[in-house]
Amino acid sequence: MPEPNADREARFAEILESTQTHIRAYVAGMGVPTVDVDDIAQEVFMEVYRNLEGIPPDVPPIRWLKGIAKNLCLNYFRRESRRKLRMKMEALAEVLDNTPATFDEIEAYEDAIKALNGCLQQLSEKNRQMLTMRYKEGQTSESIAGHFETTAEAVRITLFRLRSKLKDCVTKSLEPQR
What we know:
Layout: H1 5-29, H2 34-50, H3 61-97, H4 103-121, H5 125-136, H6 141-148, H7 152-174
Helix pairs in contact: 1-2, 1-3, 2-3, 4-7, 6-7
């Protein structure tokens, strides 16, 4: 027999109040990134609200909620794994789409690589290091900023300017000599 609405709401409010901090900590402890912890915790409590009558009377609600949280975290990691794989496949498809198909295109590609390497050598060691950290090592603007003792915004601006400078340099290097 379903609980009367007021009793049901009061029971849910009590469970929410007494467990929400623990559930958020549990989700974070499972390794979910901080930005997604609240979303998963919210899903846990939505599931509890939908199935409040399903909580066994002899089981503390926190144990039941942790079981739900565990399953939602595992689902999260499966989704993230598939998303990352899909992103890698899309990046591979883009690389393959941009792969030169003829010897002329390959030669032009090799010329562009040589021009880029020459342009990179014209940059300061600090700028080359910043580009390496971002594009070779995949570091975030925040981690690069920590290394250079500056702000993430300053790093993003510097990287934007460096990309523009490299583009101009490579373009000039590839122009036919007059």
